[in-house]
Design a protein that fits this description.
The complex is a heterodimer of chains A (about 650) and B (about 475).
Chain A: H1 2-26, H2 28-47, E1 56-59, E2 67-70, H3 73-98, H4 105-124, H5 128-147, H6 152-183, H7 188-196, H8 203-221, H9 230-236, H10 239-264, H11 269-292, H12 296-321, H13 326-357, H14 362-365, H15 373-387, H16 393-415, H17 420-449, H18 467-485, H19 487-498, H20 516-540, E3 542-544, E4 550-552, H21 562-586, H22 588-600, H23 614-620, H24 627-630, H25 632-652
Antiparallel strand pairs in A: 1-2, 3-4
Helix pairs in contact in A: 1-2, 1-4, 2-3, 3-4, 3-10, 3-13, 3-18, 4-5, 4-10, 5-6, 5-10, 6-8, 6-9, 7-10, 8-10, 9-10, 9-12, 10-12, 10-13, 11-12, 11-17, 12-13, 12-16, 12-17, 13-15, 13-16, 13-18, 13-19, 15-17, 15-18, 16-17, 16-18, 17-20, 18-19
Chain B: H1 5-19, H2 23-46, E1 50-58, E2 61-67, H3 69-96, H4 99-118, H5 122-140, H6 146-174, H7 190-195, H8 197-215, H9 222-230, H10 233-259, H11 261-264, H12 268-290, H13 294-314, H14 318-349, H15 360-363, H16 365-379, H17 385-398, H18 403-432, H19 447-465, H20 468-481
Antiparallel strand pairs in B: 1-2
Helix pairs in contact in B: 1-2, 1-4, 2-3, 2-4, 3-4, 3-10, 3-14, 3-19, 4-5, 4-10, 5-6, 5-10, 6-8, 6-9, 8-10, 8-12, 9-10, 9-13, 10-13, 10-14, 12-13, 12-18, 13-14, 13-18, 14-16, 14-17, 14-19, 14-20, 16-18, 16-19, 17-18, 17-19
Classes of the chains: A mainly alpha (about 650), B mainly alpha (about 475).
Amino acid sequence: MSAYLLSLLVLLPFLCGFAVYPVGRRSPSARNILTTAVTAVEFILSLLLFGMQGMEGGLEGVCGFGLHFTANGFGSLLGVLTTFLWLTTVSPSQEYFAHGQSTHPDRYYLFYLLTLGAMLGVSLSADLYTTFVFFEIMSFTSYVWVVQNEKPFSIRAADSYLAIAVMGGLVMLMGVFLLYDMLGTLELDRLAELAAAVPAEKRGLLYAAGGCCLFGFGAKAGMFPLHVWMPKAYPASPDPASALLSGILSKAGVFGVAVVSCQIFLHDSTWGLVILLFGVVTMVVGAVLGIFSVDLKRTLAGSSMSQIGFILVGMGMQGLLGTENTLAVWGTVLHLVNHSLIKLILFVAAGVVCNTVGSTLLNDVRGFGRGKPWLMLVFLAAGLSVSGVPLTSGYVSKTLLHESIVEYIHVLATRGVPIGLFRAVEALFLFSGGLTFAYMTKLFITLFVEKPAQSQPVPKGASYMTLSTGISLAAPALGMTLGGLLPHQIMEKTAVFTQKFFHGENLEETLHYFSKTNLKGACLSLTIGVLVYLLFVRNVLRRRDADGSIVYVNRWPAWLDLENNVYRPLLNGLAFVGAFAARVVASVGDWVVLVGKIILFFRAPRIIVPGSNEHFGVYGKDPERDVVTETFSYDLMLAGIGLIITLLYLLLH
Amino acid sequence: MLLILPILLPVVVGILVFLQKEEAKRNRLVVLSVLLTAATALACCLLPDQSLTLMTIEGTLTVTLAVDSVSRLFLIVICVIWALVAFFAFPYIKHEGKGQQFFGFYTVTQGTLMGLALAANFVTLYMFFECMTLITSPLVLHDGRFSSRKAALKYMGYSVFGAGVALAGFFFLAGYLTDQRFTPGGMLDPARAAEHGHLLLVVYLLMVVGFGAKAGLLPMQAWLTTAHPVAPAPASAVLSGIITKGGVLAILRVTYYMYGAEFLQNTWAQKTLLILALATIFVGSMLAYKEQVLKKRLAYSTVSQVSYVLFGLLLLTPEGFCGGLLQVVFHAVVKNVLFLAAGAIIYNTHYTEVDQLRGIGQKMPVTMWCFTLGTLSLIGIPPMSGFISKWYLAMGAFHAAFPVVGMVGVVVLLVSALLTAGYLLPIVTRGFFPGADVTVEQKEVGPYMTIPLVILSAFAVLLGLFPNGLIHWLEGLSGLIF
């Protein structure tokens, strides 16, 4: 019975999704009740996953190989996180449509539920084939979220999103093909041992396969340089959808990267280094994007990218540290959970702002939060946590990640290997943490401290959000705060629950999160943040307007847009070259026919009639009628007739 | 005697259709024909393997029909699609005019296709192949415009020339065969064949290229993109979806039932043809990407997609063979969905260019949902059917005799899938999400057009979700051949 639960968990949203659409056409309120009910049921069912670890189930024969699900630690955690995020975004979604921010709610809810099913399919997948199938479904169904508003920029953002998703999917498929060909199976449990047994001469091909998978999963996670869709797609989507995209869909990419890094390339230091470097670049670039942004949701998008970078750094450190990687494993998982909850809060809060103000530009939303203590509190909780301020959950996860880097530096130092690179990684890690603090301070001060611009009075009153949205915001904030206050009891338990997936082991000594060295790192990071905010954000990114008010200005150079200046021209150029070559090749047949025609219908040059006899020349000859007799084919025909006569003569003679 | 029925029935009824001036009666006759043919074909499929010699031309040269696994596959695919497209064609052709001409040839064509599928030796195959070319030409020149007549002429020129080359090849080959009947695993006399190995490979290359003209294989693909788009939509649908598979069937018979995979394995001829097929895949997709007229775009897409089949068959591996035949089925279904959807759009709005299709999804939701499912399947997005065939093709390519060509082949397949996404997805996304400023009134076509579309797209989805029956059956077939 419980084996069916896994399939049910995945299939239920698909079935209900298709029911929601016709229901919504007749009665929007029935549709709202149905979606709430489905997500609630899903959440409750997913909680059962904790009690059935190691359970397997699936749909045999579907899609050829069959879809297989399993309840392992990491997958279950991701599954529960998924259903929780969906449950908490139902109410903000309803509010979003109630405020008239978008039309076509039925379409939104259809794809809202389909994506839930697909996301659960990814989380619970037992083999890479199932992961791939649901990953692709997820990419396509979530496309509809991005395009939902159908504004010109959302259509453009959605195009980029889809293009990168399709490319990522196909490159990943190449990787899956190669892996299946090399290993003979795609079961997640067996990938590690089979990959370890791959002979050295085929190792290069294995890296190629891993690289292909990384491309696909990394694109979804927002890894540099495939992040280009992220800062455009998040602001374009409806706010609850952004919360899901950032909070959990990007984690599907992380899940895939974990499959590649922690199963196929388990404890492989070369691979670990590659992931680490991608992680560092993603972390820094995302944070810099966040600092420069003048849009609330765009800042959060940059932040998402940066935090994914932190998670990837943890993943890279796992590979580098080898078997002694528990700190990195814990840091990775906990930061992932933290980031999901944080981004849920921040994007839903941004939605609350946007529902009233109708814009997310920092200059428009300024001072919106004044006199709204509840909103301020949850925003503060999320902001502090993502910045890694002590006593928050973010502090715990970032400390673990930081510690893993420090540990590796120690290991290298005892081996006598140069450590300069990892010192730099550590410095960039703290620097990015500082930038995080700086842009969160910027957002907080803009929303809750600064006075609203006079031209745009912000409506006051308690009805800026519904109670259920308030609960949706408070629940994750509360959970996170508790986790931060009780790191050993809550956060470590969570990490231990999932560590088997990453092949992590229990730590013997207890960790002291609030030891002097750990606090020092956080303080350094926060100091950098304060300095960046005071010196850079306040002075460079703001300008005093003619009427004396202070406004944020976009100082991000326009030429620094990878998508518009590199990817799109590059792809267009490739398409041009490809089409040119294709046209040349394809026209071979036509050219041959044309040459044949020219030869066959070649007309002998006209006989020039002497000028003295002009009239005779013009009327005496009808050029149309003589086409036949003047062509080469006519000559050929005559020759043919001659041959036949010869043949007949020979035969009859 | 049963074997002659699926051929004779449509031909006889087709002649009656020609003579029937009244539309309702004519349509009833067409329905009668497609249903009866389907029933007799199904009966042929269910019976054990059997054969029927119609006449002896001279010595061992006979016109013989037989039913085997390959013919069963083609018979079923043809009959199902022929019946569904017929229903779609009723309103479409009424609108277009010249119903007698269209339905007459449409019905008779099915007979020649049945013959092609049932042909048990090369002579019979060649005969029905040429019949098919001649009888489908009127479908191309249906509207009688100068451009259509020219296109039909081009179509006939390429096809007849190609088939002629193949026939010339057969004259060379006949001396090396132990038996005239198609035999799984080939019927070459190994001792004699070994003496003139290279000559036989040249002949093989010519035969495949010749029949390849029908399947849109480079270098003789040019007619396809001229002829398919000018035909009325139901005709383009079957031309692209089914008739091109006639070329595939002929190549399959030559490769696996005359030469045999063993003889061709790891030869330069195989390599050359694989490269030709890959080039065709890329060229078709690339030109489709740059094409603006919807039906032309779909025709270019056919060039590319049918070469997926040829690539799979020419790999000479069991997986590649399965992948190729899966692609035959899936492409037949999907390309019909896409062309019929394009036809429904033309019927309803007279839009022919891609740029005009903004908001079409809101205008014709059922049609465009079908179009979307077809698109996803053609790209090969799981869980649609196209994904399954692509999986098998890739696995076949990895196990092929030429590792480099195989690897490049998989890359080309994926690049082509990307281009497929590039030329079809924008139609879907612009169609459903035209922008908030565009308002479109809903105006769907009637059930005669939507129901066949819905059934075909349901096939595209269901065959992807539950492909195992078909796969097992094809694996049994490939066990016979390899």
